[in-house]
Model the fold of this input.
Amino acid sequence: MFICSFLKRTICNNRNDPYLSPQLVYYATAYLLGGVVPKTNQSVADRSLLSLTWPIFIDLFFIFMINVTDAWFLSRISDSAAASVGAVMPILGIAFALYSTLHQGGSSVASQRIGAGDHKKLATTYGALFVILLFGGMFLTVMMFSFAPTFAQWMGLNDSMADMASIYLKTIGMGTWILAIRFAAAAILTSQGKTHWNMWSTFVMTVVNIVFNYLLIDGKFGFPALGVQGVAYASVIAWAVSLCFTLVIIIRHLKINVALPKSWSLFKKDSAPILKISMPSVLEPMSWQLTQILMTVMIVTMGELALATRIYSFNLLFTAILYGFAVSAGVQIKVAHYIGAKRFDDAHKQLILGLKLGVVGAMFFVFTLLAFSDQLFALFTENVDIWALGKLILLVAIMGEFGRSFNLIVGSSLRASGDARYVSIVGFVLMWFIALPLAWLLGLHYAYGLVGIWIATSLDECIRGIIAFKRWNSGKWRSKGVYAEELPVHDPSLNERVDCQEANDCRDVFNQEPEKSTNDKS
Done:
């Protein structure tokens, strides 16, 4: 308090004093000139979880709406069309898993750099992420376009269903590199805490996707009637429009600097921290996608009813899943910023809060789906057998989504800290040596069908969630971050810490004193 009073009397005569704190000069001058001291911009780490999570939830909801509308448009063609495309979706899911993992790795590294104040390496991290995802996208584009018929046959589809699946996969594969670059652009906005712009980008993508689905499936307003291929074209066009929107926001509106690597050696240096997180992390989602492919092959042998029910049930459950993803993404952003700043206790508190929100929200969505299951399944099909089987799947999903909440939120936080290898190894072992054999045992051997397979995957989610939580509580993640073995980029001195505290105290006093003087006059 004495410092603030002293400054108020002497600031005009001592502004050029080199020993006078710059923070004090700033706040005192602002008060004398304007009467009110402005607050500093709030960092991403100190923002509320809700402010980060709700745009991510809306963003994922729009993605969910794309899946639902695609399934609805395909079901208007036939249940066979919906089932055939759904059968090869795990192939496309491999691309999504790779892009999403690289997105999370790049976003986590960038967030840690922001939290540590290392803005010099931030731009090159963004550039390296763009190059990595472009290379990955081009590779998968070639693979999907070249081997689409082979993938459809691997899924055990018959001639007509294989043809529809092959056409869809080949068409959408041509544009998957566009989706890869969009993931890189979205990672930039995520690390900066600008999640609301990702939300608007996905909203644009959803609208464009619906419009072109309507125009291309039946050939409205002179457009060609492309059927299943029209659904794929609609997705690719929507990705391209969304990418352009996101790049305009990054480059023109926010003016975020992205520095592409100028040499191979610089690229290796800048990409190493991203790949250190992403490469181990990709093992788990890739394993999930591959085991889902094998489980889908099992479901195909059960008949078209089971396959269609699996597609429709998963689309409905995606509401609970996307909520878990939204909370986990928000927690991951904050945890990465905290770890970059070495605020480990705050990171732990954030995880616990995220778990509470995640579990409660997931259960709310699952029980709501159960209450209105018949009406919701009626949106896709009039087959009451699918309604009945779907309700059983939703009952099993209570256990599955409870475990998934732990798995998503704790797992993403461990990856954000750099402790990705442990989570990936555990996930790989459990999915291949527990979930997949159990799915065969319950689904085919004991003939519980689709319900048996869903029980196996639900148990897998629960076990992985428990193991991830135990790993977090061990505290080993504290030594895994990008700056774990380094000093902070700007480690403030004792004088700087005192100056900062004085500046904060000064701001409070100055903002209160005009009110006191007013009261004195009265």
User: Anything to note?
Assistant: The two ends are 24 Å apart (CA to CA).
